[in-house]
Amino acid sequence: MKDPILPNDDGSARPLTFRKRFFLPPDRKIKMARLYATSHGVYRASLNSKPVGDECMAPGWQSYKKRLHYQVHDIGRLLEPGAENTLLVDVGPGWFASALSWVCRRFVYGIELGVLAQLEVQFHETDELVVVCTDSSWSATSSAILRSEIYNGEVYDQQRAIEISGENVQLSQNMWFETRVSSTAVAPLTSPNGPPVRVTERLRPRSISKSASGKTIIDFGQNIAGRLCVKHLLKPAGNEVTFRHAEVMEDGELETRPLRTAEAKDTVVCAGTILSNWHPSFTFHGFRYVEVTGWSDEDSETPLTKGSLVAEVMHSDMRRTGWFSCSNEEVNQLHKNTVWSMRGNFLSIPTECPSRDERLGWTGDLNLFAPTATFLYDTGGMLGDWLQDLYADQMDEHKDWEQGMVPLYVPNCLMGAGPGDDGWHHMPNGVWGDAAVMIPFQLYMTTRDINILSRQYDSMTQYLEKGVRRGHDGLWDPYQWQFGDWLDPSAPPNSSGRSRTDGTFVADCFLIESTRRMAVIAKELHKPEDFTHFNAVYLQLLTAFRMKYVTPAGLLTPDTPTAHALAIAFDLLPFSETSGVSSREHVSAARISRALRFDDFSISTGFVGSAFLLPSLTKTHQDTLAYQMLLSRSLPSFLYPVRMGATTIWERWNSLKPDRHVNEARMTSFNHHALGAVTSWLHECVGGIKAAEPGWKAVLIEPCVNRMVSRAEVIYESVYGRVECRWALDDDTLSIDIAIPPNSHACIILPDERRRRSQGLKQNDHWVGSGRYHFKSEYKRADKPVEAILPPWGRSSF
Length: 798
What we know:
Layout (H helix, E strand, L loop, with lengths): L15 E8 L6 E11 L1 E6 L2 E2 L16 E2 L1 E4 L9 E9 L1 H4 L16 E10 L5 E5 L5 E4 L2 E5 L3 E5 H8 L3 H6 L2 E2 L10 E2 L6 E7 L3 E4 L5 E18 L6 E7 L1 E3 L2 E3 L9 E5 L5 E4 L6 E9 L15 E8 L5 E5 L2 H17 E2 L1 E2 L12 H14 L3 H15 L40 H13 L2 H17 L36 H22 L3 H22 L11 H9 L18 H11 L10 H11 L3 H9 L8 H4 L35 H9 L1 E3 L6 E4 L9 E8 L2 E10 L2 E8 L4 E4 L2 H8 L7 E3 L2 E8 L20
Parallel strand pairs: 5-14, 12-21, 29-33
Antiparallel strand pairs: 1-7, 1-10, 2-6, 2-8, 3-4, 3-7, 8-9, 10-13, 11-12, 15-24, 16-17, 17-22, 17-23, 17-24, 18-21, 18-23, 19-20, 25-30, 26-27, 28-29, 30-31, 31-32, 32-35, 33-34
Helix pairs in contact: 5-7, 6-7, 6-8, 7-8, 8-9, 9-10, 11-12, 11-13, 13-14, 13-16
């Protein structure tokens, strides 16, 4: 703007409204009309007072200095031929200029908000094309949204909105200023592959009550990411209604401590006229509970009732592809919680929480959750876009950045922040860095899209060649600090990296697995020299790992459930010279069983170990122990949050303590999808289906039947069609129903065959083509629970 609008008193950018008026010739029938738009900030457009599109928070969050998404809107039905048309575009700070991360750094990508748009109209009667572009002929003014930031929320002035709408013509004319073309560089424009953020569901309040101090509290019954929508509100001019959001209650009051500095507050300044269907436009919150100030059920005009507002669920509008259910309702709730946490955290990018002053695209979180995410939803487009940002930030040319290193979070919003980032920025790390290899590989296994591998190939090689700080043996430098088995329950609340499993060990396990997968990727891309190289490096690392961590007696150091689970999952242990059987069958399987029994089946694994614990037990034919861990009533346990009323996955297994007080840690979220990675075991082992070839061309059907659950069902909508497996135990009768889609085939391993394989009696695989299959047999296994190794007074259960 030629007359710049000053920032708000708190230093935040003031949202703007841009306007363009244009005339369309009369008596013409519109053939095609499109609006191409993007912004520095987040935008919403309206044409002739009607909303353009249903996207939220467009254009989303990218590494704005390297890539910028644009949207294409069909606007034919909104135009008025033969009349003056008015295009309005509101722009708020969004991720472009809001305070980001725990250091609350503003204006990360630029100091000016702006819009870039082109409107095109084509008529049937002529080849004439009407084009309206953003230029200095537009006008602008400060928005009716007085203040807006991702973490802190919005302030909306109803009277200002009335003024902008032009009901007072003289006032409206005086409030608009000329615009100018910004000197801020625009990154290459790209059309997004993933779906936009939309409102996908609306929840009515479950209850409206008074807190212990008499404040009005709305409980929506479900923790979500999204916003409120006020259906109708009428208050005298100047009155303010404030909505504060939080995920939990404590001692009868809204508990906001887990939000840290995020205010998560929206305010409406009323104008004395009815306000209908209002919602904040450029922010979102993670919440189940809302505290309302300035509006009550005693208001004479529009009293606050359950019909006055709804909670709007927001996330990237991905297609659902995977479902699971079983006879245990607590396990079903655990699965539902995982789905809700994915919805709450896949909002433009895959974040780790939607509530506090963070909401970053942590690479390690997604790396562990990717198998679950790609099963539950079609994430190919969204994660494909995010991976391009990962590569762009990985290869940043900033003087303080080490090219090839994978950022801890993408987009890397602390690039160049200096010492103010608290040291969490320039840090190569295992698991987090391995996302560069493992996530594209997981997407390929789901979609068989070879372009994902070829597009990300340089990112993968850059990480393995330059992004790992290695020791003399090729494994990780042992003096490089690692997150490791982050959030081990035994670690101090505010020192989550001090787990029982050495962080370097965890990083080494992932480095070896990434290198192995890289060899497979090189082979898939027909790069024989690279395959030879990475396969040789993999074998070298595997040898170094065994020399470093495996004793001559076959014992693994460190001797923890996480260490054994990773070694088993990634096939890192040596084979016996005499039996030809992996030593995990004799040593690690026994050690992990012993450790879990000594812990009375409570969770002793952190961020990483929890994702691999149950699969490693199943892999070593300890199905009963896996089920027992799943269903344990110890503290903490997989189902402890469910028993405490959780509706999403928590950041910690004990984010809420048994006395219903929030964990004292500074880092405690109640909507954190990473620990939901355990759900993958429900799909692949309890339900019993997983891809045997990339793209689900071949399917492995191998349900792990156990009497602790009497039935299970899993469904996956693959690119070939629906894959189904259902099983049910009725006394000693086992029934299994399987569906394989057209143009694919499956290897079916029934429980009797699994039992023979566990005894070393491997038989021929049973392959079938597409179709429906029914199996019925006797099931006489006892499935006796495994006993804990603790005296009665040492047990703690919930």
